[in-house]
Design brief:
The complex is a heterodimer. Chain A is mainly α. Chain A has one domain: MetI-like (MetI-like fold). In chain A, 78% of the residues lie in helices and 0% in strands. In chain A, helix 2 crosses helix 8, helix 4 packs parallel to helix 9 and helix 5 packs antiparallel against helix 8. Chain A is globular. The model of chain A has no long low-confidence stretch (mean pLDDT 87). By secondary structure, chain B is an alpha/beta fold. Chain B has two domains: 165 residues, Periplasmic binding protein-like II (D-Maltodextrin-Binding Protein, domain 2), CATH 3.40.190; 126 residues, D-Maltodextrin-Binding Protein, domain 2 (3-Layer(aba) Sandwich). Chain B has 15 helices and ten strands. In chain B, strands 1, 2, 3, 4, 5, 6, 7, 8, 9 and 10 form a ten-stranded mixed sheet that branches. In chain B, helix 11 crosses helix 12. The N and C termini of chain B lie far apart (76 Å). The model of chain B has no long low-confidence stretch (mean pLDDT 90). The chains are: A mainly alpha, B alpha/beta. Chains A and B meet through helix 2 and helix 11 of A and helix 1, strand 2 and helix 9 of B.
């Protein structure tokens, strides 16, 4: 295998970042937007859902948990195809005009990562000792206060859920392709641009964009972990 | 506690900031036009060029070209998700009009398909006509002397390929099932992808394939492929691009006026000049030929007759029953 395209890619990536190439900034910002909004939406729905599933006893609980665990691995193209038929003008939700738009991609990605949020949150909470929950309850906390306390104790698990889902949304291709159609200036994101440049045979540029994508994901993850560490140290000191 | 409050506030500010930034930088209040197209026009970069020029002239429009391959492009238009199509398959175009989905079809450009293959030319088809070449490849394939790569994706190019096999009197179902002698691999491969990806596959496998001249020139120049032309262009390998506006009676997007503006532009002298000039600087010859200019100048009557025979429907670009307030679009 020739190392040339990869080396080309490293060089080009550095060049694109240092020169502040407008199109690369646009692609990165759009990827961040879709993944960011998707994570917020999935978090708002998934966090309470995960807490509920973890803390309540109900018939079919094991089935529901298994179902969400399985849905974590749903193929993005399949979900993308399904959503495409829903959102197309000839489909039931066509009037929403979400096809070929950034909000459309964000919603699709939110649906994709929702199982991740629910699964991880539920596991994180269940890992916390049951006695903790009972303790908080006996101290007179309401249902809501109990849930909030448990979430706070399981905060590292919750952050893991959110960060993992963001990573998944940021780096996914199937939904951005199916719902966004990779339209330049409108819905093109880093992953779809990489696929296009590869299809066009521009391997150097593909690698460059891939390195940029990895760099963004790594920086964000490191940033979050530093912030978390800071908070942990604070809690330890208080104790 | 204070630390945490600050973090939460910071998070809100960040989200609000991103939201505001997004809102402020969204594309200005332009009318958005969606054109679904074949992949060959797109991958050569021509459509980006057309978009820039058109939007310079008509700044109230924002054109989005979605390159999907002819089959899917037409389906997208039927679904009502596009306002116009730019494709190169007269048979599918005719059905599109007849089923009431399209109006005001205009033939805008043409070039030729060529067959390309490995430099060594193991099947010895150089210089043959397309039909003879296919027959030779079909004979040499099972012997292990030729591999053929097909688009396999219902694109305009794929349709042309199928038509040529039919002209050669060969049955594709039979050919596809054949294996190379002594192996379990077929000699007829289907890429299921765009022209560039198909060319790259053919390059990798030292295979023969049908391609439009523009894609071939572009990929050769960039060094993506080392294939060479083996069968030249002629009447049977004509490639004709047409634009069709989606029928407002069936299409609820409501961009009929914008689509008509674009189609008029492409048909105008300025639009036709774009076809005439694109690629000359880089490749030495234009990638596409402007049809309307050629027709008006009558510079090559034989060629003009070929195009009419191949791509006209009932004697013209667009039979009158499929025209909708065309104005002077048809001269």
């Amino acid at each position: 295998m020739s190392w040339q395209p990869i080396l080309d890619g490293l060089g080009k990536a550095a060049e694109l970042i240092l020169s502040g190439d407008r199109e690369v900034i646009e692609l990165t910002s759009r990827s961040l937007q879709t993944a960011g909004y998707a994570t917020v939406m999935a978090g708002l729905v998934g966090l309470p859902l995960g807490v509920l599933i973890a803390m309540r006893q109900f018939r079919g609980k094991r089935f529901v948990k298994t179902l969400f665990n399985a849905l974590v691995g749903v193929p993005t193209v399949t979900l993308g195809l399904f959503l495409y038929s829903l959102l197309s003008r000839s489909g039931p939700l066509g009037f929403l005009d979400l096809l070929y738009t950034v909000p459309g991609i964000a919603i699709g990605e939110a649906i994709l990562i929702l199982p991740i949020v629910v699964s991880f949150v539920a596991s994180a909470i269940e890992a916390k000792d049951v006695q903790l929950r009972d303790l908080v309850r006996t101290l007179g906390a309401s249902e809501l206060e109990t849930s909030l306390a448990v979430v706070r104790e399981a905060s590292s698990g919750v952050s893991l859920a959110l960060i993992s889902s963001f990573n998944r949304a940021f780096a996914e291709l199937g939904i951005a392709t199916m719902i966004g159609a990779n339209i330049r200036g409108l819905t093109r994101v880093l992953t779809t641009a990489i696929a296009l440049e590869t299809a066009k045979g521009e391997l150097g540029l593909s690698f460059a964009l891939s390195f940029i994508l990895l760099a963004v994901v790594l920086s964000l993850n490191f940033l979050v972990s530093f912030l978390q560490e800071g908070r942990l140290r604070l809690i330890v000191r208080e104790v | 506690m204070k630390q945490r409050t600050m973090v939460i506030i910071a998070a809100f500010v960040l989200v609000a900031g991103i939201g505001a930034g997004w809102y402020l930088t969204r594309p200005a209040q332009k009318e958005s036009l969606i054109v679904s197209t074949t992949s060959s026009l797109y991958e050569t970069g021509f459509l980006d060029f057309l978009k820039t020029q058109f939007e310079k002239r008509y700044s109230q429009y924002n054109v989005s070209f979605i390159s999907q391959g002819t089959g899917l492009a037409i389906q997208t238009a039927k679904n009502g998700d596009a306002d116009m199509v730019l494709v190169h398959d007269p048979a599918q175009e005719k059905a599109f009009l007849a089923d009431g989905y399209g109006v005001n079809r205009v033939i805008v450009a043409y070039n030729f398909y060529i067959m390309v293959g490995p430099v060594a030319d193991p099947a010895e088809v150089t210089g043959l006509g397309p039909v003879d070449a296919l027959r030779k490849i079909a004979a040499e394939g099972p012997k292990g002397n030729a591999v053929w790569v097909s688009r396999g994706d219902n694109s305009g190019t794929h349709s042309k390929e199928k038509a040529l096999w039919k002209l050669a009197g060969l049955n594709l179902t039979v050919l596809k099932a054949q294996k190379i002698e002594g192996t379990n691999t077929p000699w007829y491969l289907e890429a299921g992808s765009t022209m560039t990806a198909t060319l790259q596959l053919a390059n990798q496998k030292d295979a023969y394939t049908l391609t439009d001249v523009a894609s071939f020139l572009k990929n050769s120049k960039s060094g993506n492929i080392q294939l060479v032309k083996v069968v030249d262009s002629g009447k049977d390998t004509l490639n004709v691009y047409s634009a069709i506006v989606c029928n407002p009676a069936k299409n609820t997007r409501g961009r009929y006026e914008a689509s008509m503006a674009l189609i008029r532009y492409i048909a105008s002298d300025e639009g036709q000049a774009l076809f005439r000039d694109y690629g000359i600087a880089e490749y030495g010859s234009a990638l596409f030929k402007p049809w309307i200019t050629t027709l008006k100048s009558n510079s090559d009557p034989t060629l003009i007759q070929w195009v009419k025979d191949y791509a006209y429907i009932d004697g013209s670009d667009c039979p009158t029953q499929y025209r909708l307030s065309p104005g002077d679009l048809y001269g």
